[in-house]
TrEMBL record:
Protein name: ABC transporter permease
Pfam families: FtsX
Entry's family note: Belongs to the ABC-4 integral membrane protein family.
UniProt xrefs under InterPro entries: ABC3_permease_C (IPR003838), Macrolide_Exporter_MacB (IPR050250)
Location relative to the cell: Cell membrane
């Protein structure tokens, strides 16, 4: 039967080309999706883990307050399989130049060359004790060049202006560094110098915060990791060993409340891609096998056994599946390479990295073959289960009036009863691993029942086509007369449109939720401290005056600014050592404008407190009395206690201070990440405030949003592949439907239907089916997308329903137009065939 299979592939190559293209796109879709996971992890390692991305293993202290010693470095250097060890130290500093000072972080560059975290854009890395290298952003902002001198002095949170004692160092710039892609460090200047300079700035041996290891060629990472853990277990500092990818993901988990939601979402997307691809390939291949039922039955009549028929069909499927899957896997790599290259064209997304996982390629090929074989197995078994002469007769279509229809309805109802509670429950309790199988079962249930309600929906909508005359009425009647054929055509488009709509709504809702979550963690874009609040001489202005807000508002890129006045104190939490902390006053309307977290509502009788402060009643003490307010806990550790100006007046004799210790600044939405430094620099100039006194989370939040945008860019681009898969399915089913109806269409021609009317009938039939299935797909996809996003990241906060209505409408129109275009070729083929020749077809 292998000879029969090969002859079929040769004789009906056009049919198999269509199926092969569907399989190729499905596998490319699946491989691309799987590569999103590996590439995203690699991109995170290159951004969040930029400082250690060249290492094979990293050792961190379990308590961030601990530090490693020189003995730890010596111990690890003797572990078999470890080629080199780099103990990275860092220190917060202020770098003064002729154009002002900048707040930054300095690390030492005595790492082995293969572990050096910094990259020189121009010049060289520090080779002498008096050299320093500075990042390109800082060099551009402060007009620094190679050979210029920087005065470096240590800085702390309590003393942002830096220590002016003898620990300051004058260093010569030897090189300009590539800007960092780490969103946690992007707001600071990045400096590299020698260990000796770093030790002097630190007032002693600099704190070693991490140990980076490079393994010897051929060393087994698992074995070396075990040996490192054993060696460090005998040292006084408790530590943990991670790979760069694990360390980067650990940072993501820290930012998302200790949950590795990223991996869960990517795995879920891969499962969805596999599910959708399997449905599309199975639907397309099943229609082709169904068209050959009479041919297979004829082979049975001339002596072929059931096992031979099944073997022939499975051999065809295996050959088509293998070739198409190999091409699809390569295409998937090409798609990801193109998307990563596109992302890297934006300098702020230079961290995007392509990581080709061999397991993903093998998975795509195996899944493609298995899908094809399984898709061919069921119709082949159906053709061999009946007697040959019975198989030569037309089979009854599934409907409520026969057993096949009732079985499909029962199966669909069972799947819906099982899937819907899981889907809704998973979304309600924010459990993606529960919602995911529920969504798959629910969608399968809809597909099983599709043949029972889609034809009726098409008939109802088909009344709109009556204005076209006979072709419109015939198109509507065809959908009712052959529900199986209508459902096969509709299912291909339903799958694609549902996936596209699901990802659009899911991505939009997830991005809105993540943006809201980042706004909660980073409630203020920019904070400007007054340099005159500490250490000022007699008569010097204490803080910012009332005109400071107007000055800040006038800076290009600033949306709003607010002056924070110190109006009282409240007891600090016991776990923070007790004592008191200052309370500031703001007008509620001003607070709403300047805070990025719009969930924080400042009102009389309440006080907004940081996440470290417990909620509940608190007592605030002013200069003339006390007041008890209800504490509203923010989701940010860095939030300052803020009360309303009206409440502040009640405990300060009806008046407020004329000056404030700091400004809160909200940047305009039009400000791009690359422009934030420019706006911050302009703020410092306008307010006459040194750069070390200006801080905030605008750059960090913008950088994290860039990471999110890169991921969503890749996912959104994959939707184009899903659309192509759906269109291939529609084209296949329409073409095969026309072939199946050759005698029927020829009879209509013989009864007087013109070629133009025949083409119009087939086109209207395609548009009616596409319109109904696309509308249903948009509704289903929107619901699945929002529920999926809620189940995935609902634990981080509220997930709004964010649907791109214009894009969804565009998807609906594209589906209808695509179905219309897909009907052109089969309609022309049917119209060209003469009635006599068509009636003679067997």
């Amino acid at each position: 039967m292998l000879r029969v299979a090969l002859s079929q592939l040769k004789a009906h190559s056009r049919r198999f080309i269509a199926v092969g293209l569907a399989i190729m796109l499905a596998v490319a879709f699946l491989v691309s999706t799987l590569l999103v996971s590996s590439s995203t992890k690699a991109s995170l390692a290159a951004s969040l883990g930029e400082s250690y991305h060249r290492a094979d293993l990293i050792v961190f202290p379990q308590d961030s307050r601990d530090a490693f010693t020189a003995q730890d470095l010596k111990t690890l250097s003797t572990v078999p399989g470890v080629a080199s060890v780099y103990g990275q130290s860092s220190l917060m500093t202020v770098a003064d130049s002729r154009d002002g000072g900048s707040f930054g972080a300095v690390i030492q560059n005595t790492a082995p060359a293969e572990l050096e975290p910094a990259t020189a854009r121009s010049g060289i890395l520090p080779g002498r004790e008096g050299d320093v290298a500075v990042d390109a952003h800082t060099a551009e902002q402060y007009h620094l060049g190679i050979g210029d001198v920087l005065r470096i002095r240590p800085a702390t949170v309590q003393n942002p202006g830096g220590d002016t004692a003898s620990s300051q160092q004058d260093l010569k710039i030897s090189g300009i560094l590539e800007p960092t892609a780490d969103p946690l460090r992007g707001s600071m200047s990045q400096l590299v110098t020698s260990t000796q300079v770093l030790d002097r700035l630190s007032g002693g041996p600099a704190k070693v915060a991490q140990l980076q290891l490079k393994l010897s060629p051929g060393a087994d990472p698992g074995t070396v990791r075990t040996a490192v853990e054993h060696a460090m277990g005998a040292q006084p500092v408790a530590s943990s060993v991670r790979t760069p990818q694990e360390a980067a993901l650990e940072q993501v988990k820290h930012l998302t409340g200790g949950q590795d939601q990223l991996t869960i979402v990517l795995v879920a997307f891969a499962v969805i891609a596999l599910f959708v691809s399997a449905l599309v390939v199975a639907n397309t291949f099943s229609v082709i096998i169904a068209q050959r039922t009479r041919e297979l039955a004829l082979l049975r009549c001339i002596g072929a056994t059931r096992s031979q028929i099944r073997s022939s069909v499975l051999a065809e499927a295996a050959i088509v599946g293998l070739v198409s899957s190999l091409v699809g896997a390569l295409a998937g790599v090409g798609v990801m390479a193109g998307l990563i290259a596109l992302a890297k064209t934006d300098p702020s997304r230079s961290f995007a990295t392509l990581a080709v996982d061999p397991v993903a390629l093998a998975t795509g090929v195996v899944v493609g073959m298995v899908m094809t074989v399984v898709a061919a197995l069921f119709p082949a078994r159906g053709a061999t289960r009946v007697a040959p002469l019975a198989a030569l007769r037309p089979a009854d279509d599934a409907s409520l009036g026969n057993r096949r229809g009732r079985v499909r309805l029962v199966i669909g109802a069972i799947l819906l009863l099982l899937g819907l509670p899981l889907l809704l429950g998973g979304a309600w309790f924010n459990q993606l691993l529960v919602a995911l199988p529920g969504g798959l079962l629910t969608f399968l249930g809809v597909l099983f029942c599709a043949g029972l309600f889609i034809p009726g929906a098409v008939r109802a909508v088909g009344r709109l086509a009556r204005a076209s005359g006979v072709p419109g009425r015939l198109a509507a009647l065809n959908a009712v007369r052959n529900p199986a054929r209508t459902s096969a055509t509709a299912s291909a488009l339903l799958i694609g449109v549902t996936l596209v709509s699901m990802m659009m709504v899911g991505a939009g809702s997830a991005k809105a939720a993540l943006s809201s979550g980042l706004a909660e963690h980073y409630p203020v874009d920019v904070t400007v401290l007054s340099p005159h609040t500490t250490g000022s001489s007699a008569g010097a202005p204490q803080g910012f005056g009332p005109t400071a807000v107007q000055t800040a508002d006038s800076v290009n890129g600033v949306a709003s600014a607010a002056l924070l006045r110190t109006v009282g104190t409240l007891p600090a939490p016991a776990e923070q050592g007790g004592g008191t902390q200052e309370v500031y006053a703001l007008d509620p309307a001003t607070a709403h404008d300047v805070l990025t977290d719009k969930n924080l509502r400042l009102a009389n009788g309440t006080i907004v407190v940081p996440k470290s402060h417990p909620a509940g009643p608190v007592t605030v003490t002013g200069s003339r009395g006390t007041i008890t307010l209800q504490a509203v806990q923010a989701n940010a550790w860095t939030m300052l206690p803020v009360m309303t100006e009206d409440d502040a007046r009640s405990i300060n004799g009806g008046a407020l201070p004329q000056t404030g210790t700091q400004l809160w600044v909200k940047l305009a939405d039009t400000v791009q990440p690359s422009d934030i430094r420019t706006v911050v620099n302009a703020l410092g100039t306008a307010l006459n405030v040194p750069q070390p006194y200006i801080s905030g989370a605008a750059i960090e939040r913008a950088s994290f949003e860039e990471v999110i945008n890169v991921l969503l860019l890749v996912v959104t681009a994959l939707l184009a592949v899903a659309v192509f898969i759906a269109l291939i399915g529609v084209a296949n089913t329409l073409s095969l439907s026309v072939l199946e109806r050759t005698r029927e269409n020829s009879l209509l021609r013989a009864l007087g239907l013109t070629r133009r009317q025949l083409r119009l009938m087939l086109a209207l039939e395609a548009v009616l089916i596409a319109g109904v299935s696309a509308l249903l797909g948009v509704l289903l996809g929107s619901a699945f997308g929002w529920l999926g996003a809620k189940s995935a990241i609902g634990g981080l906060g509220a997930v709004p329903f964010d649907a791109p209505w214009a894009a969804l409408l565009g998807t609906l129109l594209v589906a209808v137009v695509a179905a219309l275009l897909a009907s052109i070729v089969p309609a022309r083929r049917a119209a060209r065939l003469s009635p006599v020749e068509g009636l003679a077809t067997t």
